[in-house]
Amino acid sequence: MKKLWALVFALFLISCAASQGMRMEPSSASSKVSDGSLAGLQKQEGRILTYTGSITLEVPENEISDVMDKMYKHIEEKKGFLISRGRNHLNAKIPASDFIHTFNWMKTLGEVRAENIQIQDITEGFYDSKVRLDNALKLQKRLLDLLEKAKNVQEAVEVEKELSRVTEKIETLKAKLNLYQKQIDYSELHVYLREKSIPGPLGWVFVYAYKGIKWFFVWE
Q1: Beta 49-60 vs 111-121: how paired, if at all?
Q2: Which pTM value belongs to this model?
Q3: Cβ-based neighbours of 23, under 8 Å, separated by 6 or more
Q4: Are strands 49-60 and 186-196 parallel, antiparallel or unpaired?
Q5: Helices within the chain (DSSP H only)
Q6: What confidence tens digit (pLDDT) does each residue in 66-107 have?
């Protein structure tokens, strides 16, 4: 019995050591690209990056519905999907390969009042989880071999208990990697529409008066 648990403990230590050895150096968690600059979106070799973009557009009130429909249609054409949608905003997932194209296309639908792209570096977390999963799967296989060699019920029960813990860990790591993969495959996009005020008949008088005064002082 002591030999059995000594072997299980040794396998556990080997698994932990391998995981620690493969862990990558920490990197910056995220950065922002704003003011219309897309320079930060250049691919960084060896890094796994995810993107979240937001745009605020100003459009005439009577065009908001049409603009929303155009955006929704474009998202469908690009094989994306909506997370949420309101009268003047939407939140969607876009295939990462079409993110920049979609981001720039949506900016043409109105006057851009704000834009931002958040870049998240998930390299360390992704590879750390992958190494941990590989080690957990190897440990699971070894425990199954030990279970077959158990000499009595007590040994079998103890190995099954450890096997249950490792199996639960495997499922957790698989779910985490699946979430990472979704973030890699799809970028997130938030678009907000603001109503563009259109002056009435009296309002245009003040608009043209302002332009006239501005022109006068410029040429003076």
Answers
A1: antiparallel
A2: 0.70
A3: 124, 127, 128, 131
A4: parallel
A5: 2-22, 64-77, 99-106, 123-149, 153-185, 201-219
A6: 999 999 999 999 999 999 999 999 999 999 999 999 999 999
